[in-house]
């Protein structure tokens, strides 16, 4: 295997490991308020503005079907609602309800405490640099995938 192949494999394996760890952390933070990491992820995607399921899926890097299933579960729990979408008749917008917003706000203290522990451990500058590197990697993979698909 070439050095570049080893780098790609290392990036992928480390990212998979990080994803698992972040999901564990998110579950630990969300469970006390009756959510899962996936619920929190979908709710988090629509806090700023309602989005269609496909928009949430793109933003989160997960399948539209997964988001639809989670959004339906959240709607059944009264945490989100489906609203008409002026841009597309059939693709409803997912929006948080007051109960959904309240659940996310109840996570905030534990979320802030964990963020402080993480940044105290690795430092704000390193955390910001890691975020920048991860965003660059994600954007580059998106661009390379777009090139491969001819878009």
How would you describe what is shown here?
α2 (37-45) packs across α4 and α5 crosses α6. 18% of the residues are buried. Helices cover 72% and strands 7% of the residues. The chain is mostly helical. The protein has one domain: Arc Repressor Mutant, subunit A.
Number of helices: 6
* CATH homologous superfamily classification: Winged helix-like DNA-binding domain superfamily/Winged helix DNA-binding domain
Strand content of the residues, in percent? 5-15%
Number of strands: 3
| CATH class label | Mainly Alpha
Protein name: MarR family transcriptional regulator
GO molecular function: DNA-binding transcription factor activity
Pfam family, one: MarR_2
Domain HTH marR-type: 4-143
Lay out the secondary structure.
Layout: H1 3-30, H2 37-45, E1 51-52, H3 53-60, H4 64-76, E2 80-83, E3 93-96, H5 98-122, H6 124-148
Antiparallel strand pairs: 1-3, 2-3
Helix pairs in contact: 1-2, 2-4, 3-4, 5-6
Key terms:
about 150 residues, mainly alpha, Arc Repressor Mutant, subunit A, 3-stranded antiparallel β-sheet, 6 helices, 3 strands, globular
What's this model, at a glance?
InterPro entries: HTH_MarR-typ, MarR/SlyA-like, WH-like_DNA-bd_sf, WH_DNA-bd_sf. The chain is globular.
């Amino acid at each position: 295997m070439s050095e570049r192949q080893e780098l790609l494999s290392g990036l992928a394996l480390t990212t998979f490991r990080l994803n698992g760890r972040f999901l564990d952390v998110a579950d630990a933070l969300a469970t006390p308020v009756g959510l899962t990491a996936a619920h929190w992820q979908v709710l988090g995607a629509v806090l700023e503005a309602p989005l269609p399921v496909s928009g949430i899926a793109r933003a989160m890097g997960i399948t539209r079907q997964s988001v639809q299933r989670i959004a339906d579960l959240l709607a059944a729990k009264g945490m989100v609602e489906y609203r008409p979408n002026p841009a597309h008749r059939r693709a409803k917008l997912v929006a948080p309800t007051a109960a959904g917003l309240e659940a996310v706000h109840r996570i905030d203290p534990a979320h802030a405490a964990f963020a402080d522990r993480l940044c105290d451990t690795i430092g704000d500058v390193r955390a910001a640099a890691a975020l920048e590197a991860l965003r660059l990697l994600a954007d580059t993979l998106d661009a390379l995938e777009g090139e491969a698909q001819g878009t």
